Amino acid sequence: xxxxxxxxxxxxxxxxxxxxxxxxxxxxxxxxxxxxxxxxxxxxxxxxxxxxxxxxxxxxxxxxxxxxxxxxxxxxxxxxxxxxxxxxxxxxxxxxxxxxxxxxxxxxxxxxxxxxxxxxxxxxxxxxxxxxxxxxxxxxxxxxxxxxxxxxxxxxxxxxxxxxxxxxxxxxxxxxxxxxxxxxxxxxxxxxxxxxxxxxxxxxxxxxxxxxxxxxxxxxxxxxxxxxxxxxxxxxxxxxxxxxxxxxxxxxxxxxxxxxxxxxxxxxxxxxxxxxxxxxxxxxxxxxxxxxxxxxxxxxxxxxxxxxxxxxxxxxxxxxxxxxxxxxxxxxxxxxxxxxxxxxxxxxxxxxxxxxxxxxxxxxxxxxxxxxxxxxxxxxxxxxxxxxxxxxxxxxxxxxxxxxxxxxxxxxxxxxxxxxxxxxxxxxxxxxxxxxxxxxxxxxxxxxxxxxxxxxxxxxxxxxxxxxxxxxxxxxxxxxxxxxxxxxxxxxxxxxxxxxxxxxxxxxxxxxxxxxxxxxxxxxxxxxxxxxxxxxxxxxxxxxxxx
Length: 547
Ligand code: B12
Ligand code: SF4
Hints:
It is a single chain. By secondary structure, the protein is α/β, with parallel strands linked by helices. It folds into two domains: 140 residues, 3-Layer(aba) Sandwich (Rossmann fold); 265 residues, no CATH class. It contains 21 helices and 15 strands. The protein is globular and about 70 Å long.
């Protein structure tokens, strides 16, 4: 084999497929706005920035276009990686690359958490690429044909590279990701972020973020940037400094971008921070709410949410022009028998339209997984792709012996989804958002983008306004908001568009969960748990053919 480092190396980066029925794959909305997939593959763009810049790169995102044999044949080296739901597609790609005689390098969160599953890859470059890619390149230069690279060391974010944003077609995506922080100071039991990235938040420099913004600007990108941080406000002092700089940069360039991010609920307690976010044109914030029950929050170490009234927080955030989305989990050991009702009430009262409700999933390599393993309650099979099941929090959660009867949890899950994604209830939350929001959008679309917005708006009117399920609700919401708070109509129509995806996704999840409930009726819970816990890692690995 020729030494790849010395030759002109053709490097193919492949973002493999996600499940079509994920909460996050709002394909209908992509179709409406003329995109192909919601989010660009930031991990691989960063990897491209870390590899030798004399290599020739090509990126194929299978969520956007098919991966052809010709793409693979062009490559000297194939790089891929990603999350748990991509496990099946990554394993398939390893086989396909090998069939065509190609070297394949695998990295990213799932391979880092479960390396044994990916051992057929030639190179496993795990953890943070900033640390392990140089180790891999050194070996490659010395003629290595395989290897595994791990490191306890954390990357110095002050030395970050600029992701190779030039490798994607912007129009394929609704948003482009950018990362400011890695790590989170909190300690939620179910969270893998603190295992992968640590509990001390590490920041890029403000200058680095401005360079990344400038790169996107120079490449001609305009529009939506998602700050992919797990908790953008993990260090409020730092983030305020950054926001002041982003604001000055944006003013000079007439606000080419608007932003979304994830934050903890205590965002609502800091008016200065909210004001700065508003001035930079932040439009959506994802809040990890998890459960309305304080005892459960406390038992899962999510103490930062205990006694924090979500309804007030959401109202406050709306008053600064930002829509809150929320993440919720069902299936905690300690949740009460009233959890379904409590969650529905909490979501309805808060007015959070986009509520991502999942079943508790013990992600590999978390405190929760280790505890369940110690207690003999973990199902190994469900963190590994077996048969044709998607690995998704909504369809394959509860990968452990539950203390509350499983069927009860599944029925609670169905009740919450049915209620929250009932058109009347959903549109009530959209109307609330539309009436309460006080936006001052700084980013103004170009004329051609404005035309796309108008076309998208007409499509939403057609699909939501003339649908039997939502027509009445849509027009009622539309006229209420436009007459009483016209500045809220854009946010409200966007949320209405999302419902086109949510109603299909809900139907899929409810049907899948009902199938699980039916299956449970034919087997005792004890027998089910016995079978699942007996499926050891080695047995599962043998079934998926990884060793
Ligand atoms: C943004 C984000 C999303 C976004 C966008 C995803 C996208 N397409 O870009 C959305 C909201 C859609 C999303 C959804 C989900 N996510 Co998510 N997400 C993230 C988040 C917060 C940031 C990812 C990111 O862009 N990071 C920045 C880049 C630069 O880092 P990176 O991708 O890790 O890449 C680095 C290394 O991993 C490595 N690397 C990566 N790939 C490769 C490849 C090679 C060859 C090499 C050498 C190295 C390498 O090098 C890079 C530089 O260091 C992470 C948490 C985190 N802090 O990373 C979770 C995270 C990746 N998500 C996760 C999960 C579980 C999900 C969901 C399944 C459920 C959920 N939590 O909502 C869904 C499924 C999505 C779907 N479409 O079906 C887990 C993955 C756990 C696992 N073991 O796989 C994470 C780690 C945390 C979490 N619990 O949420 N997610
Ligand atoms: S706040 Fe979010 S990112 Fe931080 S530990 Fe908890 S779940 Fe993880």
